[in-house]
Fold each of these.
Amino acid sequence: MSGTRRLEVETNGLDVIDDAERRGRPRQLFWPWFGANVSVLGLSYGSFTLGFGISFWQALVAGVAGILFSFLLCGFIAIAGKRGSAPTMLLSRAAFGVRGNRLPSAISWLLTVGWETVLTALATLATATVFDRLGWGGGTVTKVVALVVVAALTVAAGVLGFDAIMKLQTWITAITGVLTVVYVVLVAGDVHWEAVSALPSGSAQQWVGALVFLMTGFGLGWVNAAADYSRYLPRSSSSRGVVGWTTFGASVAPLVLLVFGLLLAGSSPDLNKAIAADPIGALTTLLPLWFLVPFAIVAVLGLVGGAVLDIYSSGLALLSAGLRVPRPVAALVDGVLMVLGTVYIVFFGGEFLGQFQGFLVTLGVPVAAWCGVMLADVLLRRRDYAEPELFDPAGRYGDVRAGPIALVLAATALGWGLVTNTSADWLKWQGYLLEPFGLGGREGAWAFANLGVLLALALGFLVTLLTRQRVRAQEAA
């Protein structure tokens, strides 16, 4: 898609992409999605998953199911991009109305800004850990320099836009893919199957908790950006190809990395514990000194690959939420917030894992509710979007559609009542429906299953399917 276009600052924001600019094939979607998800953070998810108290085999099934299903949701929503030639959160107006869509756009913006901040913070911490092991100093100065470099790469690509991202992601895919394979070969001797296979099985509730965590950590963190790249494909592109290449490109690296991460974390309780504090840096403890610099490269580039897609999509979401500035300016605004958030996490945030889980699950509930509505809306449509009317409050898509908005709010309220996170003090108010629903309260067996995410997704999807007349009326108009 980018090979025939000159690299320059993209001026497209919420614009509908002209047919003359649309080119490429669905298989080219592999590059941005693989590059965004090849991060060695996938190895740390093995430790996060075993933290739910389940066995290797239970974690493996949860990983395969959670990763594939959640990225399949991205694949289906990506169909909207090639049908409508516009960003995900603009196409969402067809379901929520032109101004009514500002609420889900604001939620999407919070999620993507949060993710880009988390990834930048992890890249900064990983660099400091590598420098410390090499004896080059891993203190404040190293962290500041690392933050400046990572932020500069991320913000520059986000401001330049689509073509720069496609080129960068192709390089990130090649470099990180090779170096990750080398990492796996070097640490394979630290896998001890006897210890891994001896991990005790957990309960069904613990398995569901791991499944939901993996869904929110992978595909549900990307659904709100799923159409941002497919919008540059020709309208005649295969919908099956869009779904397949999006799902395959996004899920193949996380699946491989998760399996190996499970083997590593299950082999060493000390490593398992260390990952909670420094998810990337802890992985360096297994490496010979000569590979630490290549590891830093693969870690930083992999995390930058994810942060770049997030800052691009967060800028688009900010525009969709109502900010009237050029797209590069919106990306720059998000970059400033990303840096400020990274400073807090790196220098003041304390232990990482609890805050990270709280962030994922809390925002995962309203995003899952929106995803359910959007997924059903996309699957119900048989025609391309009437693109000019996505900007017209008096058009067929309406101004503020109270039904879908109320559905997201209700599903979120119910969902937050069925999730908990005791590691983050600011989230202890959640879980208020666990006792009334007979699920044992905040200390019961279902407390950490995070059923609220699944409930929000299912409610948004099923209720929208039952109200299909709205879509039929829009298309008839």
Note: The first helix runs from residue 30 to 37.
Amino acid sequence: MSWSIEIDTNTCIGSGMCAGVAPDHFELVEGYSKTLQDRSEPSEEVVDAAESCPVEAILVKAVATGKVVAPEE
């Protein structure tokens, strides 16, 4: 199983929470979040990063099903 990681660049405010929580998956580039890879194996760090985003700009979905993994509603 793999996950897709999407960042809504129009929503991102560049807080850096994602890069702080999951530095192996996110970085800040010119003040905005960027994924290091568009896909990831399931990782608690990725979920924590999506959940910690103050504007919910990160969307994590299961590739096979399209089911939203994070953020939880």
Note: Residues 9 and 63 are 20 Å apart (CA to CA).
